[in-house]
Design brief:
The chain is α+β, with helices and mostly antiparallel strands and 496 residues long. 30% of the residues lie in helices and 27% in strands. Helix 1 runs parallel beside helix 7 and helix 7 runs antiparallel to helix 8. The relative contact order is 0.13.
Length: 496
């Protein structure tokens, strides 16, 4: 039997992709060249929107048990607090940043994947692939050196910044490398202020960021000078970390027991198209950027959640390839652009040089963050609940309906309600007052439409919500013809 999907790369993005595809009943294989999963903390934060999507996967509980909830972020310049951004007011079941090392994220996702009978094939390298109009034939090299030819309907490259899939597609990774060295330290700290918050300190010599991991373990990041071409800066020592904390911190912080010490550079790069026929890219294979904001891994996991249901519906024969699969690049590339720009701006502002410019930055930022609507907007952006697809070919709105989400927006998540898309079959969900026309639509589109109608967000509206919880259609109550037209547009044509 031909396998439906080959997922290349078993990091958080590849694992999330495999979980979603397996949940939808597709036959998959997931391979990784590495002999074992990472033992490093790497990506550290899982944001609210990602946790909402994990609710659909059914694995959030294990993450909450293993992680540490951070509920606020502070920006400080000298002795002055520039901003205090709380996450408790964000309209989500998860109003916090879940701090959890990437090694644990991979472990938990792998355990969840195993419950579907799917296991990572390690020490297996994708060496080449040949796509056609109907399938992709990939050559896999196993640890003993033997090659295997595997035919699948789809190939998804989740194989990181040095992606073999991207290279063989010949896609340019457009962007640049910032000419600044950075220090990273996962260490134990005593005397850290606001130990449950993310703390950003703007200092005249650079930026210092301290993330909580547990009650006494923290991630410390700081810029450490301009990159010197041809000269690799050695990894920092514990004394180097203490010196940066003493110089830029508020004082009284003591570092000990290092878990991981490293230097890194910031790359800001992205492909123009996330798809080439039956081959897709997701995560770092498609976009890499500054760690400012901690959006990278989350963006990749959300790539996976965006693509998996679309491939599932096409593979099941419920939907035509277009516009469904074509919407993946349109939607996720726009998000990638937003993340790149926002992270780049945050980094540039944080490492701004010059006393006058720093003084202006601090003054303007203090004024801006003093406005409650700005703090709320920043919290929504940080937690990623603000992400939407307003320009997607899958977002349709004939008019604005007050009291509910606009087309392309994330649908509100109501307490006690089963998350949209939590089942093992991806279907659209209607939020409206029930009537006979809904029953007719269920009969016409049983593979596309959930049979249970949900209470509308407002008495005068009708909403069609996608399997990933975003709004496909927002219209007035009773406009069932628009729902029918939308489903007709994406459904597989049937012979007359």
């Amino acid at each position: 039997m031909k396998t439906d999907v080959l997922v290349v790369g078993a990091g958080p993005v590849g694992l999330a992709m495999a979980v979603e595809l397996a949940r939808y009943g597709l036959s998959i294989r997931i391979v990784d060249q590495a002999p074992q999963r990472t033992d490093k903390s790497k990506a550290l934060v899982v944001w609210s929107r990602t946790l909402e999507l994990m609710d659909r996967m059914g694995c959030t509980a294990s993450f909450l048990a293993a992680g540490f909830k951070a509920t606020a972020a502070n920006i400080v310049a000298g002795t002055k607090q520039i901003a205090h951004i709380t996450l408790g007011g964000v309209a989500t079941p998860h109003p916090y940043a879940l701090m959890i090392p990437q090694c644990d994220t991979e472990r938990l996702l792998e355990q969840h994947l195993n419950t579907y009978g799917v296991h990572i094939e390690r020490n297996v390298e994708l060496t080449q692939f040949a796509p056609s109009e109907t399938s992709v034939v990939s050559t896999l090299r196993h640890a003993a050196g033997q090659d295997e030819n595997l035919e699948t309907s789809w190939l998804i490259g989740c194989d990181g910044a040095h992606s073999t899939v991207r290279h063989q597609l010949g896609m340019e990774f457009l962007g640049n490398t910032l000419m600044t060295d950075w220090l990273l330290a996962d260490v134990h700290l005593s005397g850290a202020p606001n130990p449950r918050d993310v703390n950003v300190i703007w200092h005249s010599d650079g930026v210092l960021v301290v993330f909580p991991i547990t009650h006494d373990r923290f991630r410390v990041i700081a810029d450490s000078g301009d990159t010197r071409p041809g000269i690799e800066r050695p990894d920092p020592t514990l004394q180097d970390v203490q010196a940066v904390l003493d110089q830029r911190g508020p004082g009284g912080i003591t570092v000990s027991d290092p878990v991981w010490l490293a230097n890194f550079h910031i790359n800001e790069r992205k492909v123009a198209d996330y798809r080439a026929g039956r081959v897709f890219l997701a995560g770092d294979a498609a976009h890499i950027h500054s760690p400012a904001g901690g959006q990278g891994m989350n963006t990749g996991i959300q790539d996976a959640c965006n693509l998996a249901w679309k491939i599932a519906l096409v593979s099941r024969g419920a939907c035509a390839e277009e516009p469904l699969l074509g919407s993946y690049t349109i939607e996720r590339s726009a998000v990638g652009d937003q993340v790149l720009k926002a992270a780049g701006r945050m980094t540039a502002v944080a490492i701004l040089r010059g006393e006058v410019r720093q003084s202006i930055r601090n003054h303007v930022a203090s004024l801006v963050f003093g406005l409650a609507p700005i703090r709320s907007a920043v919290a929504n952006a940080m937690t990623e609940v603000a992400i939407g697809y307003p320009k997607s070919p899958l977002s349709v709105s004939s008019q604005h309906i007050s009291g509910g989400p606009a087309a392309g927006e994330r649908a509100p998540i109501r307490a006690g309600e089963i998350p949209v898309g939590a089942g093992n079959t991806p279907r659209f969900v209607v939020f409206a007052e029930p009537n006979e026309q809904f029953s007719h639509l269920i009969a016409r589109f049983p593979d596309l439409l959930d049979a249970i109608i949900r209470k509308p967000f407002h008495d005068h509206g009708l909403w069609l919500i996608r399997p990933d919880g975003y709004t496909a259609l927002a219209t007035k109550q009773g406009h069932w013809d628009e729902v029918s037209a939308f489903l007709n547009r994406i459904a597989t044509p049937h012979p007359a």
